[in-house]
Write a structure and sequence with these properties.
This protein is an all-alpha fold and 108 residues long. It has two domains: 7-52; 65-97. Helix content is 61%, strand content 0%. The chain has helices spanning 4-24, 33-50, 68-94. Helix 1 (4-24) packs antiparallel against helix 2 (33-50).
């Protein structure tokens, strides 16, 4: 079952990708506004990720997980690094310009 937070994150990231594509067509300093969209989407994602979903119920038998915060932080950092790595791969390999080379050398 998908919750409203997941739907909100999907909408935010779709808008972020669309704005990055739109701003990449502009010239000048406006072309860098796509980076601001990605930074804003990352901040919103992290804020929603660490925001508590509700009040914890009062129970007499509570099991404390001391490593929960560390595991969540590691998974979050790895997710952000994966996203950054995918951007670097796209920038270096996918968007690399390929220039045609002549088949025969020009005699002059």
């Amino acid at each position: 079952m998908v919750g409203p937070g997941f739907i909100l994150l999907v909408i935010i990231w779709i808008l972020c990708i669309l704005l990055c594509i739109i701003f990449s067509r502009f010239e000048g300093s406006v072309a860098y506004a796509g980076i601001l969209c990605v930074i804003a989407a990352v901040i919103i994602t992290l804020a929603l990720w660490f925001h508590p979903r509700g009040v914890a119920p009062d129970e007499t038998h509570v099991i404390y997980d001391q490593t929960y915060l560390r595991r969540t932080l590691i998974v979050s950092v790895l997710g952000v690094m994966l996203f950054v790595g995918m951007i670097v791969v796209a920038a270096l390999h996918v968007f690399d310009q390929r220039r045609p080379t002549p088949l025969k050398a020009c005699p002059y």
